[in-house]
């Protein structure tokens, strides 16, 4: 399968939307904490962390499967990258 210009544009758009979503989530949670709405702030942070954790787990499992198909077994650097929340940027 060829990686077309459309695929590239959609990848860039996806990364922009992902980063924007994280920034807005952080901004909303900070506003909740500043207004004294600690329960909503904690809920916002919890949902944000759960979402990023799920995305990183799926991304790592796809990387692991791809590396196994390619015959490469060194997965430690990819595991560290995903633990630091950077795995989706390498996909």
UniProtKB/TrEMBL annotation:
UniProtKB keywords: Cell membrane, Membrane, Transmembrane, Transmembrane helix
Parts forming coiled coils: none
Transmembrane regions: 12-33, 39-63
GO CC list: plasma membrane
Cellular localization per UniProt: Cell membrane; Membrane
Membrane topology: Multi-pass membrane protein
Pfam families assigned: XK-related
Predominant location category: membrane
Family matches, as InterPro entries: XK-rel (IPR018629), XK-related_scramblase (IPR050895)
Family: Belongs to the XK family.
PANTHER family attached to this UniProt entry: XK-RELATED PROTEIN, XK-RELATED PROTEIN 9
Protein name: XK-related protein
Source organism: Ursus americanus
Lineage, broadest ranks: Eukaryota, Metazoa, Chordata, Craniata, Vertebrata
């Amino acid at each position: 399968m060829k990686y077309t210009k459309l695929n590239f544009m959609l990848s860039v758009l996806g990364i922009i939307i992902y980063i924007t979503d994280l920034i807005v989530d952080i901004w909303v949670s900070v506003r909740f904490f500043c207004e004294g709405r600690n329960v909503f702030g904690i809920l916002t942070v919890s949902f944000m962390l759960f979402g990023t954790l799920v995305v990183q787990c799926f991304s790592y499992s796809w990387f692991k499967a791809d590396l196994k198909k390619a015959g490469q077994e060194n997965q430690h650097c990819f595991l560290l990258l995903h633990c630091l929340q950077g795995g989706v940027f390498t996909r």
